[in-house]
Design a protein that fits this description.
106 residues, Transcription Regulator spoIIAA, 30% strand, globular
Amino acid sequence: MRITTDGATLRLEGDLDVRSTTEVRAAVYDQLARHDHVVVDLSGVAGADVTALRVLAVASRAADLRGGHLTLRGCGPAVRRLLHLSHLIRVVDVDRAALDVGLGVG
């Protein structure tokens, strides 16, 4: 997993799975401590599992509780499908504009 930051945006590249959860959790919470609104860009994520997506869902909930916000951007079809199947889509904010562009809407 490669993690880079650009302001309040955290870009993840590689496999977002159980092996990367500790590293991703630390990076996300570090960003949330610095910024009120954090964007996690998943456009470089090759694959994901539910365990890693739960880390993002818990971080999103924690941000909400302290008055912040976390948005997922660049979710590919596999990540979106897993978010729906796991019902985590109800917990996380997914950048809708990016979804619409990817689906050819608008």
